[in-house]
Amino acid sequence: MTESGGPPAGPHAGTGHDDATSPAVATPVGEPLVVLSGVDKHFGSLHVLQDINLTVGRGEVVVVLGPSGSGKSTLCRAINRLETIEGGTITIDGQPLPEEGKALAGLRADVGMVFQSFNLFAHKTVLENVTLGPVKVRRTNAAEARRRGMEILQRVGVDSQAEKYPAQLSGGQQQRVAIARALAMDPKVILFDEPTSALDPEMVNEVLDVMVSLARQGMTMVVVTHEMGFARKAANRVVFMADGQIVEEAPPETFFTAPRSARAQDFLSKILTH
């Protein structure tokens, strides 16, 4: 696995996250944690994932970029079997994805997921949203779950909102709660499916700051995003997809300054000039 992480240089599409904050410290990448081999997926006649081969090392941050319809979100959702695959294999920490039942629930406990929409339980408080999984799935003692939940809410900067309901929070706060909910399960990897795309621009940075912090702390992350500043700052590797295929992958500075494929060059020429 290639490690990288240079400071942002030049314009970044889709983000106001171009502050002077130093880049995330490169995290040593460990043994393979998520492995996709020959993965295929169709939606009807549309071949959305075509022979996908991708390995994510323990402690690695992989950012998946590409135009709309390239298969990025489907790839992300396939990793925890929110989308089934028709060919190939996916393993998490050496274990193949289970198809259903308790084994699948156990897998999803190990693979956190943060969506575009926050998917919080509207009738439960922020703290109840965060503690529900550990209590129900991990069988954590309720008092310990609350203690740990408050620690995690503090980690993402919303501990003062613990007793409020999601509707009382801003979009950025809700997404940080969603990240806290994923962290509460002590996952091996967290998948982010365009986590800032539903946010107002002024709320994007507060979520990205939390994600950069997680990257610095060594969390294994697969991030589908249009936030180029985050990709430069926090990724060990950028994976570029188009038309259901991985076209190229490289350290962020290499990808943004010297993309190899004509498809990536065209993509970057369109987004980095705005």
UniProtKB/TrEMBL annotation:
Domain of life: Bacteria
Alphabetically ordered keywords of this record: Amino-acid transport, ATP-binding, Cell membrane, Membrane, Nucleotide-binding, Transport
Record-linked CDD domains: ABC_HisP_GlnQ
Enzyme Commission numbers on file: 7.4.2.1
Disordered as annotated region, ranges: 1-25
Keyword Nucleotide-binding appears in the UniProt entry: yes
Family named by the database record: Belongs to the ABC transporter superfamily.
Reaction catalyzed: a polar amino acid(out) + ATP + H2O = a polar amino acid(in) + ADP + phosphate + H(+)
Name of protein: ABC-type polar-amino-acid transporter
Molecular function GO labels: ATP binding; ATP hydrolysis activity; ATPase-coupled polar amino acid-transporter activity
Organism: Friedmanniella luteola
UniProt GO cellular component terms: plasma membrane
Matches recorded under InterPro entries: AAA+_ATPase, ABC_ATPase_HisP-typ, ABC_transporter-like_ATP-bd, ABC_transporter-like_CS, MetN_ABC_transporter-like, P-loop_NTPase
Subcellular location: Cell membrane
Main location: membrane
Residue stretches making up the ABC transporter domain: 34-268
Pfam family, any one: ABC_tran
Class in the EC hierarchy, top level: translocase
Entry membrane topology: Peripheral membrane protein
